[in-house]
């Protein structure tokens, strides 16, 4: 069974409000995926994503009835920490988490669209580079861009990456990409809704790390 289809994101309601608990459940499956990628550089990325999920969950669990949607959390933090907001708490964690989620979205979409280096059709470097340029690069100074270069060269072959998405089963590339396309429906809608929320609340920052 495909990892992606087991962990599909939920349909959004018409107002695009994201249920915090369902969101946390959906993203909680992402970090363990990095264990199958087989290079230590991925453990840095894993712990960054994991840390951000934990920060959001920590706030949510303080008062689940108050923080039903992600927007409830971001707005409550704006009230409580007006001086530092949005560079604070779960607002900051979600700001960065969404960039990682966007990276994954662009990477999977590029693979699903069949974009490839004709000379190296089993490499995913063009797809990974596209995702990095669209989602993360502008927030990274040169040191972190160097880490990206290490990760890029440790990227798995496409066949191994797709196999990992299929939980180690040998699945035909076309079948796996069909699953990716299905997964991307609600996933992309959710990531877009988080970006829209940050724009509408004026919560986005563009400092580099
Ligand atoms: C800022 C920053 N976080 C952190 O400093 C950087 C960490 C290292 C980033 C290295 C970049 C690597 C790019 C990926 C290359 C991957 C090659 C993939 C091959 C497959 C923030 O950190 C903190 O997060 C925040 O809490 C803190 O408070 O200023 C703040 C303070 O700093 C980032 O730049 C976020 C990095 C997210 C990277 C996501 C990469 C995802 C990679 C692969 C995805 C594989 C697909 C999985 C599909 C699974 C579906 C189920």
TrEMBL record:
Alphabetized, the UniProt keywords read: Cytoplasm, Lipid transport, Repeat, Transport
Write out the GO MF terms. ceramide 1-phosphate binding; ceramide 1-phosphate transfer activity
A single Pfam family it belongs to is GLTP
Asked whether the UniProt record includes Repeat among its keywords, one would answer yes
Domain of life the protein comes from: Eukaryota
Chief subcellular location equals cytoplasm
Localization terms from the record: Cytoplasm
Gene Ontology cellular component annotations, sorted alphabetically: cytosol; membrane
| Keyword Oxidoreductase recorded | no
Tell me which residues make up the Glycolipid transfer protein domain: 18-166
Task: Supply the InterPro entries for this chain.
Answer: GLTP_sf, Glycolipid_transfer_prot_dom
Name the PANTHER family on file: GLYCOLIPID TRANSFER PROTEIN, GLYCOLIPID TRANSFER PROTEIN-RELATED
According to its UniProt entry, what is the function of this protein? Accelerates the intermembrane transfer of various glycolipids. Catalyzes the transfer of various glycosphingolipids between membranes but does not catalyze the transfer of phospholipids. May be involved in the intracellular translocation of glucosylceramides.
Tell me which family the UniProt entry assigns to this protein. Belongs to the GLTP family.
Protein name in the entry? Glycolipid transfer protein
């Amino acid at each position: 069974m495909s990892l992606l289809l087991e962990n599909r994101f939920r349909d959004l309601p018409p107002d695009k409000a994201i249920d915090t608990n369902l969101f946390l459940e959906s993203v909680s499956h992402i970090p363990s995926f990095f264990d199958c990628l087989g290079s230590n550089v991925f453990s840095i990325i894993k712990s960054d994503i994991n840390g951000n999920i934990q920060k959001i969950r920590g706030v949510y669990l303080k008062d689940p009835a108050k923080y039903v949607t992600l927007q409830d959390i971001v707005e409550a933090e704006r009230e409580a920490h007006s001086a530092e907001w949005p560079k604070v708490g779960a607002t900051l964690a979600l700001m960065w988490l969404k960039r990682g989620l966007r990276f994954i979205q662009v990477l999977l979409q590029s693979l699903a669209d069949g974009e490839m280096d004709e000379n190296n059709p089993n490499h995913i470097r063009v797809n990974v580079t596209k995702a990095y340029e669209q989602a993360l690069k502008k927030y990274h100074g040169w040191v972190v861009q160097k880490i990206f270069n290490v990760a890029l060269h440790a990227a798995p072959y496409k066949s191994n990456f797709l196999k990992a998405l299929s939980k180690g089963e040998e699945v035909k590339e076309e079948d796996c990409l069909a699953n990716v396309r299905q997964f991307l429906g609600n996933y992309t809608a959710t990531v877009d809704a988080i970006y829209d929320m940050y724009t509408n609340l004026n919560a986005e920052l563009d400092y580099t790390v």
